[in-house]
Task: structure prediction
Amino acid sequence: MSAGELAGLGIAEARRRLAAREISSAELTADCLAAVEAADALNAFILKTPETATEMAAAADARLARGDGGLLEGIPLAIKDLFCTNGIATTTASRILDGFTPPYESTVTEKLFAEGAVMVGKTNMDEFAMGSSSETSAWGPVINPWRATGDNSQRSPGGSSGGSASAVAAGLALGATGTDTGGSIRQPASLTGIVGCKPTYGRCSRWGVVAFSSSLDHPGPMARSVEDTALLLQAMSGHDPKDSTSADVPVPDFAAAIPGDLKGLKIGIPREYRVDGMPDAVETLWSTGADWLRAAGAEVVDISLPHTKYALPTYYIVAPAEASSNLARYDGVRYGLRVAQADVNDMYAATRRAGFGAEVRRRVLIGTYVLSAGYYDAYYLKAQQVRRLILRDFEEAFERVDAILTPTAPEAAFAIGAKSDDPIAMYLNDVFTVPGDLSGVPGISVPAGLSAEGLPLGLQVMARAFDEETMFRVAGRIEDAAGFDAKPAAWWRGES
Result:
């Protein structure tokens, strides 16, 4: 068996082989760890955890031998470095958290590990999840494993969950955790040719997830198939009394909802998502996706989400406002980086100046401004009112349709550095994903085709709040019809 072959398995297939004792978790994990070691060129990991992974795999094999394995027993996963891991450093890709080792476990990772998952490492990301390209990390940019045809320039994997996306796309782990505040699971999933799901707000606990924007942060799964993503979400979900925003709702068997046709379902196509300058390949793929759903028995109808045009400006008021409040705790006093000064106020300023990168400082300043006296009503309060109108658009649409189909991102993977000097151009990458975060409805990106340059393109499915089952069902039909099986050439291992 060649190196990397086991690491390239899907979660569902690996579960079958592990249960049948055809392979062991030790073998599967060792293959993933070898793949991680060979992929330093991607910069997908901030911290590798081979010793922890090996111990977890051995414990998983013991449970499998006793016949009492969990849903993800023995499955190697990558964990975004925004999830606190007990006794293992968590940095959020920021120097401000240098030296921070949490004495507790996030609820999401605790649930995954309780189901037998194995952690191979903590993945790189945009600092504090603020970015759409995974370039703002204090540990340097993440590199997309995909390259354009005839072009060896490095591409962005999207962000902020770019490390998780690259790790899954490159076959370094069978799945990964991400967080989605403005599109940070779905957009990188689209740019790397994998599946990424943002569940309904409250479906997965935020406890132990380092906060960016508390009313917008959505933990969720990333994997190489719709079924694998459904299995991860089932393990991650559930009510958590430690999180006041956690929803006390049943957790369905999401994977069981995937099979079947779409007869009787109505799929909405929002006219406002046809934006100026969208590449022909994205427009064509969207139309093709609608045809696939018609062929599966669904009725496709035009709908309107009239406040979509206000989603990005609303997001870039609400998210920085909440970030400025959440990040006030990083002052050099209690944990993380401290730049010693004679005066405590000077110490605060010096620590934050040295610890926060440019994009984080930009958003903190914007957030502080919109919350300041004289501007709160004009900006923050107005943005919250518009946010309610965006939610109402979705509520009215879902009175007519069962799911909504859109592109995931307005373009394929762009070159590293192409948008770094233009924050507005960078922010526009989230134009199709931000409305779902503002409204809290579930959404999933499914790889559905390639651009003219041979780079992945994704389609997004959104559904009613807490109706992830319909979302997965529709996503499954797109996956079947697309038959997307393209993989990046492993240039980081010397393959052409």
Remarks:
- The longest strand covers residues 443-450.
